Amino acid sequence: MTMNWPVSCAGLRALDTPSAADCAAEAKDIGMPHPHRLAELMAARIFHDLGSPMASITAILPQATDPAAHAILMETACELRARMKLFAAAFGHGDDLPWHELAVLLRGAPMAHRVRFEVPASSGPMGSGRVRLMLSTALLSAEALPRGGVVRIAQASDGAVTFLPEGRDAAWSPIFVDLIAQGSLEGGSLERALDGGPRRVLAPWVVTQAMAEGMELSFAFGAGAGLPPLLVCPQV
What is the Cβ-side half-sphere exposure of residue 96, based on CA atoms within 13 angstroms? Predict the structure, then answer.
């Protein structure tokens, strides 16, 4: 099956939030040939993930007077609204939020019908940049669960956060694993990651957001059988 990833100039301007601009500036600083490529791929990814509920709404509108169709229309509209709120916080410049509000936002994830998110007990609000990193990492973790499952998120007293996807055939994105192994975005590693296109763009997006927040990413190998958890720790 061929999947199209539409991009428009208007959409790229809509994505030109501080976070996208910061990513482009950072990419330019490390010598990336096309500093806006990450923003372009993120725009394409967002358009695709919003396209499914939009297509459903468009298809059912002519039958909206039918009670059953109206119920489906309202449900789909709520799904679209929840997804847009999540994307605004994960990929834009949102508000400071505590964990329990992130849990509410994650109900709008495209994979929420098959992946459950367990978040830490609520604490004080995190800054918008940290919120963006946590939400994006949760979405990337969910991508490691092609057959569904649960993403368990835990936070230690020192601020370190652990993401553990659990489910059948769970596997981290190879692009993300390569970026973590590289240990930096130098040497063309970011450009190679972007070659994965919109479908795989969350991996380089998470890495750039971690760098912007002064956080280190690593895998806790040897933590037990199964998929190694991802550690997001403050740099020391």
Answer: 5
